[in-house]
Amino acid sequence: AYLIRDIPRRWLEEQGMRKLPHADVIVRGVSDTELGHVIAFKSSVLTTTVRPSPLLFIRIPGTFATKPVREHERYKLQMDCNVIHAGNVYDGSL
């Protein structure tokens, strides 16, 4: 079993893509729950593929950590955003 994550095209141009198979990774994310749980786990990369689309295959973790971000429910909203760090621009949504 594995998780599939799409890879941004700009990563394909970087040398690090060749070193990804079998690399250890830490995956973090926020779930779409009323309390906005943060989820994190350690795993490793099975393989990558660039055709038909760039994808990253990650092993399913044995355990993961989760923690609610807030005490009370919040209204759902979605805002587009971007982060600029060290000359790189990362697009996403909040």
UniProtKB/TrEMBL annotation:
Matches recorded under SUPFAM superfamilies: PilZ domain-like (SSF141371)
Protein origin, superkingdom: Bacteria
Gene3D superfamilies: Electron Transport, Fmn-binding Protein, Chain A (2.30.110.10)
InterPro entries from the UniProt entry: Split_barrel_FMN-bd (IPR012349)
Keywords from the UniProt entry: Cell projection, Cilium, Flagellum
Protein name: Flagellar brake protein
